[in-house]
Amino acid sequence: MSDQPCSVGAGLSRAMARAEELRQSSPRRIRVRIVTRHGDLDPGVIVVANIASRTGPELEAQMGKGVRYVPLAELDARAHELPNLVDEAAAEIEAAVAAAPPPPKRPSEREDGFDIGAYEDLIESSYRAMLDASGSLAARSVASLSTAGVAEALAAGALKVASLSAVGGRIELSDLVDMLRQEFNDARERAGSDGVARERVH
User: Fold this and answer.
1) DSSP 3-state assignment of 142?
2) Does pTM surpass 0.85?
3) Nearest 5 degrees, angle CA 122-CA 125-CA 130?
4) 196 pLDDT exceeds 50?
């Protein structure tokens, strides 16, 4: 980046362009915001970098990092530094995330003597129970909701249950998302297979 003095507007423009370059090139889509702070409390320009956390440790690793500040009184003289500050903040956050400890494994992966049979039975029983309950709820749903609206509401309710269970079981968000993605793909494949079977019958 240039060390030549420039106007505040030019410095901000270059910094924003650099932030977008980093977002596009980063595998984790690092986000760098450039915020102007006004008022009596330390007015100036703040550069804040962050990466969407996939785990609790990644979130904790970013706390207090990836922030740079230029006081308003120094902004004219230091405007040319803003693109460099974007790079510094981004590099600090990327290093923090890279150094974050891996999340703990799920109970089914880490517990000795884990009863996989009981685990799978409980999965199937809870699935059947929630499916029966959702069918009854859908049948009693208000007439103002469309079929798609009812399905969305049931999905949102199931996600609340899943999220609460994940928190109780200390399952990381990334693991929960992976589980959801797998189940979603399986359900879509089953729906496709059922559709093909019905077409063959007709």
Assistant:
1) coil
2) no
3) 120
4) no
